[in-house]
Structure formats: C-alpha cells, structure tokens
Amino acid sequence: MALKIRLARGGAKKRPFYRMVVADSRNPRDGLFLEKVGTYNPFLSSEDPARVVLNADRIKYWLSVGAKASDRVTLLLHSKGLCDRPIPRETPKKSAPGKKAQERLKQLEAAS
Fold first, then answer.
1. Which residues are CB-neighbours of 98 under 8 A, at least 6 positions away?
2. Which residues, in sequence order, are CB contacts of 19 under 8 Å at separation 6+?
C-alpha cells in the first residue's frame, strides 16, 4: 500500500480549508484516509500560527514508515522545519522559445 501525506479539500465554495491526511495513494482526494495529521487554512495571513497546524509526532512517524508527502505538503512541512525543501522541478522544454526566435536572439547577440 503506497501511502501519501496530502491535502483533502473542505470548506465552502471559493472558501477552501484543507485537512492534511495520510491516505492510500489510490483513494480519491477527499475520500477514505487513515489519519488526519494537520490542517491548512490559506485565507489566514502567513504569520498567523493557525494557518498551518500540524501533529509533528504523527507526521514523523508516517514519514519513517514510508509515506511520501505531496509537493504542497512538503513545502508546508519545510516551513515548520519537519523536512528538507523540495528540489524544484525542471521547466518543460515546451516553454523554450521556438527555432526562429532563438535564431533572432543569436543574431542580436552577434550584432552587439
């Protein structure tokens, strides 16, 4: 069973509130979970201590058992000092300029 520590959405329309849960990775986002280990309220200011509330002991336990944290959860855990900062992913090659644009850039560099 592949375990994930991820966010499950709650709250009203356009007013999200998230529970940080440990769940089987095959379950749906808001479906069955094993344990609730924290909450995240994005509407509170970043200095407010109630923005991210964690049960650190249980999170450390689940990470030691082999649970993987999602990208967003990893950032939240890093802000509380529970794990290392994730390595940023490489940007896709699709976002690079096209061939003609690259040729124009080379011509501009050669001209100057």
1. none
2. 7, 8, 10, 36, 38, 39, 40
- For residue 36, the enclosing domain spans 3-93
Q: How many whole angstroms separate alpha carbon 29 and alpha carbon 36? A: 13
User: What predicted TM-score, i.e. pTM, was given to this entire model?
Assistant: 0.75
Cα–Cα distance, 107 to 104 (Å, whole number) = 5
CA distance 86 to 36: 22
| Strand-strand pairing, 3-12 and 68-69 | parallel
Number of domains composing the chain: 1
Segment 8-31, tens digit of pLDDT: 999 999 999 999 999 999 999 999
Mention every residue, 6+ apart, whose C-beta is less than 8 A from residue 25. 2, 3, 4
Whether 56 is covered by a domain: the verdict is yes
Q: What token pair was written down for 103?
A: 């040729």
